[in-house]
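Example for tutorial group B:
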């Protein structure tokens, strides 16, 4: 029996996945939630760019979920965290009895989605490569990397092996029995890079050339790691050792100097990186702060870990969303106010 796949959210990541799945002849239904994208795909196919090579793949896209028919064995949720809970709710009736959903968001959405569909119906995926939609229907894989996948209960199941085979059509895949630890490793980075990028309005290179911002970065990171540790979560290595950027509050001068220096080199290496949260603000869209630093703050309260830096970051981003502030390097001074 052929596996039926639904991809909801055909942006940068979803577009690349859709193109590779269709290219391999899989039974894939695409939901764009955007009529312009649907029309472009239906008239001219999906253009997939990778490594300078451009390929056109034919596929059928629908704008609304209601246009899809039948039951699906795998539903990929590839939209912003702000929309994933509602997407899961609407998609649930299309899931087969033995089917599951794959969450692929920045931040931690699994708790919220699990309340809708049940955690046993979720496989979590962490995307370690970049994808961009240059224009409707035109997608580029902008950087190499892996996808880490795992069951929320830490088991290694046959459906994980099956999902790995599907995703390997697009990139290397790593199965982990500690997906929660991997989620928190990515969360720690995103709470710093993505959120501070939105607050300052700058790319990573400019942002991390500032010593004060580097110190705030390390403070935010430390609070996330401390919260995970208090919850009994062991951070999982994704691209690098997640504890490399961890600085204890009582770190001595040498360790502090070394951590700040490491961040400076990170800024130089990835100087052109622009925060996805900043891009959302630029487009007038709601950010994912609730599922990033906001999630950390809420979780930290449950385990009695103080998070003044993350709390302030949430406050600043929310003020920017409401138009009370603009993204600017000047916002860094707000971290020193009560």
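The residue assignment follows.
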């Amino acid at each position: 029996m052929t596996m039926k796949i639904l991809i909801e959210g055909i942006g940068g990541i979803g577009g690349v996945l859709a193109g590779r799945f269709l290219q391999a002849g899989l039974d894939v239904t695409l939901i764009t939630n955007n009529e312009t994208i649907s029309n472009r795909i239906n008239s001219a196919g999906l253009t997939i760019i990778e490594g300078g090579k451009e390929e056109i793949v034919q596929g059928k896209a629908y704008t609304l979920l209601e246009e899809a028919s039948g039951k699906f064995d795998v539903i990929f949720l590839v939209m912003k965290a702000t929309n994933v809970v509602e997407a899961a709710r609407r998609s649930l009736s299309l899931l087969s009895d033995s089917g599951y959903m794959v969450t692929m968001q920045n931040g931690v959405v699994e708790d919220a989605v699990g309340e809708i569909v049940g955690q046993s119906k979720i496989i979590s995926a962490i995307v370690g490569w970049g994808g961009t939609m240059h224009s409707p229907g035109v997608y580029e894989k902008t950087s190499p990397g892996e996808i880490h996948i795992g069951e929320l209960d830490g088991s290694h199941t046959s459906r994980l092996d099956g999902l790995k085979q599907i995703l390997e059509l697009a990139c290397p895949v790593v199965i982990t029995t500690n997906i929660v630890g991997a989620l928190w490793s990515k969360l720690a980075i995103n709470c710093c890079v993505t959120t501070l990028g939105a607050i300052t309005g700058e790319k990573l290179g400019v942002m991390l050339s500032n010593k004060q911002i580097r110190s705030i970065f390390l403070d935010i990171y430390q609070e996330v790691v401390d919260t995970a540790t208090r919850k009994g979560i062991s951070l999982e290595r994704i691209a690098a050792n997640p504890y490399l950027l961890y600085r204890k509050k009582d770190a001595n001068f040498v360790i502090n100097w070394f951590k700040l220096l490491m961040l400076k080199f990170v800024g130089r290496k990835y100087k052109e990186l622009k925060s996805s949260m900043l891009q959302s603000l630029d487009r007038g869209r709601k950010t994912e702060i609730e599922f990033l630093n906001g999630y950390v703050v809420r979780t930290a309260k449950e385990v009695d870990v103080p998070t003044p830096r993350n709390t302030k970051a949430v406050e600043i981003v929310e003020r920017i969303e409401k138009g009370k502030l603009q993204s600017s390097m000047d916002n860094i001074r707000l971290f020193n106010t009560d």
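DSSP finds twelve helices and twelve strands in the chain. Compare this with the pattern of hydrophobic and polar residues in the output above.
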